[in-house]
Design brief:
By secondary structure, the chain is α/β, with parallel strands linked by helices. It is built from 9 helices and 8 strands. α8 links the parallel β7 and β8. The mean pLDDT is 95.
């Protein structure tokens, strides 16, 4: 039985697409990177931004940090509000909590912003632990955040078989796997079913209801 359930935030609990892509556009425009549409910027939703800028744009760490700082300039002001909960997710959290499960958030988003988003949508009350990166985005590797969330929940090495990581991108799946956890992938976010399968996900759910049923019925 899964007693400890860790959730990613972006694309899993809430849909941040508008706020993130508009804030990325703001940063890219400032530094002269051409963007044809907001849609093409959705690939940046989920992973740590600095590393993703370096990988996708071929920039050095300094330029990647400048881009990330410019992104946060808009996102921390208005972008975080351009967000909404994933359909059925609050009901799912309510049901899991009522069933006695311990819940945590493990997100690469800075902790201060993650907590603000969760409070804004009245979701923070369902979680025993909320873990994220530092304000500048450092310490944001998913496996590190999952490790901190497990520690916050008091999960021992022997209890990891009772814990599961839930997310919508391969980074969530790999972060859970590196900590020895089972994983659940969601197709309501920004990762494809193929991406999740290729990452070796344990189970894929196409709705919050399907996710909840699996988490509660797994033996």
């Amino acid at each position: 039985m899964y007693r400890y359930i860790l959730f990613d935030l972006d694309g899993t609990l809430t849909d941040p697409g508008e706020g993130i892509t508009r804030s990325l556009w703001y940063a890219f425009q400032h530094y002269g990177y051409p963007v044809e549409s907001l849609k093409e910027l959705e690939v940046y939703i989920g992973p740590p931004l600095k590393e993703e800028f370096m990988a996708r744009l071929g920039v050095d760490e300094g330029k990647a940090r400048e881009l990330a700082d410019k992104f946060r300039e808009r996102y921390n002001d208005v972008g975080w509000k351009e967000n909404h909960p994933i359909d059925g997710m609050e009901e799912a959290l309510m049901e899991l909590k009522a069933a006695g499960r311990k819940l945590a958030v493990a997100t690469s988003k800075p902790l201060t912003i993650a907590a603000r988003v969760l409070e804004h949508f009245d979701l923070a009350r369902y979680f025993d632990v909320i873990c994220g990166s530092e304000p500048d985005g450092s310490k944001g590797e998913k496996w590190m955040i999952v490790d901190r969330a497990l520690a916050g929940l008091g999960v021992s090495k022997e209890q990891k078989q009772q814990a599961v990581m839930v997310g919508d991108r391969r980074y969530d799946i790999i972060g859970g796997q590196k900590n020895g956890l089972a994983t659940v992938g969601l197709t309501m976010g920004y990762g494809s079913r193929e991406e999740l399968k290729n990452a070796g996900v344990s189970f894929i759910a196409s709705s919050a209801k399907e996710m909840t049923r699996y988490l509660l019925e797994h033996k």
